[in-house]
Amino acid sequence: MDGDLLEAVDDRDIGSVRELLRSGADINEKDEYDATPLINAAMSGLTDIVRLLIEHKALLDEKDDDGYTALMYAARYGDTEIVRLLVDNGAAINKRNSYGETALSFADQRGHTEIQRILKEAAQKTEHVKKEEIRHATVAVKQARVKTNAIKIEFKADGKSPLHRANLVKEKPAPAAVTITDTSSNKNTPKKEEASVSPPLKIGDKVPDGSVYAGISPDSGDKMFVMPENVLDHRGGNLGMTFYAAAKYAEELNDKKALGHGDWRVPTKDELNVLYKIKEKGALKDTFNLNGGLIKGTKNGATWYGNWYWSSTIKPTPQFSTDSRCWQDFSDGMQRSNDDSNHAAVRYVRTQPDANKKVR
Known about the structure:
Strand order of the largest sheet: 1-2-8
Shape: globular
CATH topology of the largest domain: Mannose-Binding Protein A, Chain A
Order of helices and strands: HHHHHHHHHEEHHEEEEEE
CATH class of the largest domain: Alpha Beta
Number of domains: 2
Radius of gyration: 31 Å
Structural class: alpha+beta
Strand content: 5-15%
Distance between the termini: 48 Å
Oligomer: single chain
Number of helices: 11
CATH architecture of the largest domain: Roll
Number of strands: 8
């Protein structure tokens, strides 16, 4: 029975879903992406199945391996009815995925105005309930407060209380006198030379070699630099490349010491997500592909997703087996797996040790 409910949801077979739930199937089982039947149903827009799963007490706020909840997917894809179902039944509206996004941020990005309204109204109600809970708790504390008798401490003529005399309270010693010597008239006192300090790098700053500072790599903790533009496919001018073409071209660039360095590489998925977050900073503004949809190559006619970028992180799927990598949509930050042979954009990075990094 394991996996049958997930399969029934994938098949959009509400009859089988209903029968499996009656038979005691695990309503919160997870697939290889940690997605539950409810998450998959919401992602696929299966309103009736979502309603059925909610009626059978499915957990509403479970997350998949990217941190997405059912509500996030429904908001992202503009499914107003499923959003309303989830919110009315108590789904948490302020949960964040692995990239810091919420259901409301997806609705804002995609212009789903009705979903924005539903989520904002729910947020206001939640805030009101919290304030009422705090008010009632405060009243309860005041009503239950126990009055305590003040302790009267009698001071004698010497200014000390019985506690002092019993050595139960230690007096603070008087501060030591500090002697200040004026050395301004001492001509022999050598002056310290002020060290020349370079201003700290800011994310988006272009550095002398032509690359752009991208902050700290979340993988190594070292400073990360990114090429200032997307790299064209050297074999035909097509902006998109297969992953292996991108990795191979990085080797060629390193042999030529591009921008003076020989350690350029395709970023990991976490480094790529950093680039997504800073894509509008400084010299990086307007240099990434943000438009969605398919784009035709300029020479060889290959079709590729213009707003997706490769990472080097392997992320196997049943569909693509082991020949898949994690890539990211720079129009909305979504990360997913894709076959290595498909075409996507690439932006190379390199890291160098940070002299100020603390070693544990």
